């Protein structure tokens, strides 16, 4: 690009003036540093001591500096925390700091209102704001004044013209240091906002500190004014456009005029951790953080996110997480430290968006990512993330992985499941006598012990019976895994066949009776007893789970007449449990909400029992019948109860007629019309 001689000298002159300003500022800083070094308050951390030293010099200037200081850094680097520490160190009675976050700020009025609140807390209190609005309303009429006492009005004034200017009140405190945080998060135009801040610096003589994440500042907002030859708008101060690429021109031009010094805030890990742990209420967790500071630092550094905000949230959430852990579990040597490391890593990665909570389900498969022929993307991604943490044992979820998923996705876990899972870890190996649990922790078994444990589990698997289908699922998943890796002389098909035979033996001995699971149904094929199933995505494992379900359903169907008798007994005095057994709720007692058990209840026995219970139990039973069918999604599975409902409703209607004119008769009539008939209608609607 060709530049004419006048334009060339303008550019050179512009650059020279900028350079001279920088040299002048630096010389002034050195002069103050040498002459007033002893007056500066000490900084507690050495990481950002150079910034503290300059801010101490800058805020102590007697003359107007004529420029602002910019503190930059990524989100979560601790800029806000750092400047608040500086404010405590540098603030004096005659030099207050006024701080405002620009996050979401839409106008300069919002900024001035916040400054006014800090300068005049009493006047800006809620009570005074309400009183001010009342007075302004009461004085909205014109006031007339009689200056000479002759009874005639000599003048008038309208209260509408009387207004207290917030900017004027702020200007009365010119010694204040103004701090503008979150520059990039403002909802205002960047150009307008920087122009507003520049007015405080250039025209009002304030000392101003700006905090920003420059990586997030819009790079394409043009400065209003005259247009350049390229068509972009630029400042109208007569200064030439800097010969550079368009894009970030506007921000750089304004920054060059407004900002005299720029510093990048480094994460002060040690100072931040000490500050965060002060807010931890649990003494045990607070002492843990103090003891494990080096381990926490290792996790933080290896994450490479340098985000103190994420660290604070993780440390505070871990305190809450530990509140669900039984004290006897926490005392196991090494357990809580291992749990902390894994919690921090998962928290950092989930909060950064590198993994989702559901990705944690694949954690057990990470060490074997190379064995997956399909190249599972979730497993490979998780492996890539966790491989950053060199030297930390993270490739095992430690807890049942669904517990991590629940916590990071929903913010809550079942304390019972959490403690059960912790007691199944290798830290309780001496207490875990069952051989299948030792086999699940095969990574911790020495070469000479592994064959003995394997043979013990295999013997029970082939010849005996496990006491719960959950154990069988664990063993089937483990054996499929060992078979694929040459550690078991059975093929995967052989394992599946032996597992189905084992299910048949369990059914014969009555082990499959009862509810399918005490936990959510989606967890039935995910985990049991606090440990996740191996090879749960394998087709062979799915066949075993399906066979258990079908066999259990056979057992349940055969046992329904007997279960119906037990249900009938709950109608007298235990109607709350009767309700939970029949109606879909969040209770683990929801045994029959999609099982047609009422079709197996003797109608005459039901009616006689219903008519003999207390009015309160009568009402609860009727409510259970009506609510049972309000969820149409389950009605298809219990359609066979329709005939039972119609027969009971008809018999009750006849009984109501026989008792007409009595309270009992009216109660039965209302039950038929308001409950039983409603139930019939609901189940019919599900068919249409």
From TrEMBL:
Record-annotated KAP NTPase domain positions: 60-318
Range of residues in the leader sequence: none
Region of interest: Disordered: 220-247
InterPro entries xref list: KAP_P-loop, P-loop_NTPase
Highest taxon of source: Bacteria
Name the UniProt record assigns to this protein: KAP NTPase domain-containing protein
């Amino acid at each position: 690009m060709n530049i004419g001689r006048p334009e060339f000298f303008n550019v050179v002159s512009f650059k020279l003036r900028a350079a001279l300003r920088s040299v002048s500022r630096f010389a002034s800083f050195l002069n103050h540093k040498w002459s007033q070094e002893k007056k500066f308050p000490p900084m507690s951390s050495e990481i950002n001591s150079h910034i503290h030293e300059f801010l101490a010099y800058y805020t102590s200037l007697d003359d107007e500096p004529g420029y602002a200081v910019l503190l930059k850094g990524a989100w979560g680097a601790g800029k806000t925390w750092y400047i608040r520490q500086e404010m405590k160190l540098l603030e004096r009675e005659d030099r207050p700091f006024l701080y405002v976050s620009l996050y979401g700020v839409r106008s300069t009025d919002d900024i001035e209102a916040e400054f006014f609140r800090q300068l005049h807390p009493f006047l800006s209190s809620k009570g005074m704001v309400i009183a001010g609005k009342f007075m302004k309303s009461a004085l909205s009429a014109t006031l007339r004044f009689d200056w000479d006492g002759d009874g005639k009005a000599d003048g008038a004034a309208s209260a509408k013209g009387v207004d207290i200017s917030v900017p004027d009140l702020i200007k009365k405190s010119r010694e204040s240091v103004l701090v503008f945080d979150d520059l990039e998060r403002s909802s205002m135009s960047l150009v307008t906002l920087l122009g507003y801040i520049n007015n405080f610096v250039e025209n009002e003589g304030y000392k101003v500190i700006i905090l920003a994440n420059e990586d997030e500042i819009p790079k394409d907002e043009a400065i209003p004014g005259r247009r350049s030859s390229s068509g972009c708008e630029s400042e109208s101060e007569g200064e030439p456009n800097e010969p550079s690429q368009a894009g970030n021109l506007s921000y750089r031009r304004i920054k060059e005029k407004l900002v005299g010094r720029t510093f990048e805030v480094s994460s002060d890990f040690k100072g931040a951790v000490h500050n965060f742990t002060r807010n931890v209420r649990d003494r045990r967790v607070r002492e843990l953080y103090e003891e494990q500071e080096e381990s926490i630092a290792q996790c933080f550094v290896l994450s490479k996110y340098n985000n103190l905000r994420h660290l604070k949230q993780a440390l505070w959430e871990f305190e809450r997480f530990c509140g669900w852990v039984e004290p006897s579990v926490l005392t196991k040597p090494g357990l809580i430290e291992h749990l902390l490391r894994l919690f921090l890593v998962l928290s950092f990665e989930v909060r950064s968006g590198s993994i989702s909570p559901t990705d944690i389900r694949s954690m057990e498969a990470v060490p074997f990512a190379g064995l997956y022929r399909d190249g599972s993307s979730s497993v490979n991604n998780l492996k890539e993330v966790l491989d950053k943490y060199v030297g930390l044992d993270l490739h095992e979820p430690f807890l049942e992985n669904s517990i991590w998923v629940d916590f990071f996705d929903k913010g809550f876990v079942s304390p019972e499941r959490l403690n059960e899972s912790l007691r199944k870890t290798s830290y309780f190996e001496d207490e875990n006598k069952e051989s299948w649990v030792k086999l699940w922790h095969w990574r911790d078994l020495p070469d000479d012990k592994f064959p003995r444990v394997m043979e013990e589990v295999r013997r029970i698997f082939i010849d005996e019976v496990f006491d719960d289908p959950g154990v069988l699922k664990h063993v089937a998943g483990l054996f499929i895994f060992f078979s694929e890796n040459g550690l078991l002389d059975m093929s995967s098909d052989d394992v599946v066949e032996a597992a189905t035979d084992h299910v048949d033996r369990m059914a014969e001995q009555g082990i499959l009776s009862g509810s399918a699971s005490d936990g959510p149904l989606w967890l039935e094929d995910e985990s049991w007893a606090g440990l996740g199933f191996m090879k749960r995505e394998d087709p062979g494992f799915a066949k075993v789970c399906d066979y258990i379900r079908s066999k259990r359903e056979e057992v349940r169907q055969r046992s329904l007449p007997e279960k119906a008798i037990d249900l009938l007994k709950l109608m007298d005095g235990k109607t709350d449990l009767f309700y939970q057994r029949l109606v879909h709720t969040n209770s683990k007692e929801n045994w029959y909400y999609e099982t047609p058990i009422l079709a197996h209840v003797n109608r005459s026995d039901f009616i006689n029992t219903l008519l003999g219970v207390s009015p309160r139990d009568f009402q609860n039973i009727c409510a259970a019948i009506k609510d049972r069918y309000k969820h149409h999604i389950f009605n298809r599975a219990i359609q066979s109860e329709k005939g039972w409902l119609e027969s009971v409703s008809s018999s009750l209607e006849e009984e109501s007629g026989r008792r007409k004119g009595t309270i009992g008769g009216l109660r039965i009539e209302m039950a038929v019309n308001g409950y039983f008939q409603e139930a019939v209608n609901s189940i019919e609607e599900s068919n249409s």
